[in-house]
Amino acid sequence: MKARHSALCVEEAEDVVKELRAELAEAGITLPSLGLDPVSLAREAPCPLVELGRCSVETARRLAAVLR
Hints:
Elements: H1 2-26, E1 35-36, H2 38-41, E2 50-51, H3 57-67
Antiparallel strand pairs: 1-2
């Protein structure tokens, strides 16, 4: 049961990353490091975190503008 829950958590996190990447692309924004945090995946029962990563100052400005 625990393994199934972990698998669903990872699957959901992967789906969210794909969705976020697509929505950001629609806004003309690319976060090069966007993905799943490998450390959170290494746990016995993974419950992954989404790593937004680093971006340029220009990308950060564009992201802030979209969020306003």
